[in-house]
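Example 3.2
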Amino acid sequence: MTKKIYILVPIICTILFAFYYQGFAKEDEAASVQKIEDAKNVRRAEILQDAADRKEAIEAALALNADRKKEREEKEAQDLAEKEARQAARDARDVAYRDRNKLENQVADLKKQITEVKTEIEDVTAKKKLLGAEEKFLQTFVVAAGSNVDNLNRVLQQIDDADKAAAAAAALAAITEPKK
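Structure, written as tokens:
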């Protein structure tokens, strides 16, 4: 009987264990299935929540993108207006510089012409003074030349008279001198 105990006790224990394990396995399987279902439900909920969050994020991103696009368009329009204003200012500045340079050149030309005219006026004034002095000299010279002409005519007359007197004296001396 002792030998039977060694065989019967393990068989009985194995049978008891099998009944106990079957009950535990059914409960464990039901718990595992429930856990898997819960995990699947949680995962589905997460996926649905992620999808909803993504949809909201996409809508927010699209709205933000539309706002950014609108802001970018406004900024581009403002930049274009500023660029056009800067270009207009540059053009106006260039026109002003050209006008200024043109007027400066005209001023320089006019100053040069004024200098030339002043030089001509000074030359004419100097020439006028010189001609006035020459006129005065000529008037004085004409008067002096006139008196010199009278004096020379008188001297010439005296020389003619002296020559005539010398010729008459020589003729008289030739007549009065005896012939040899």
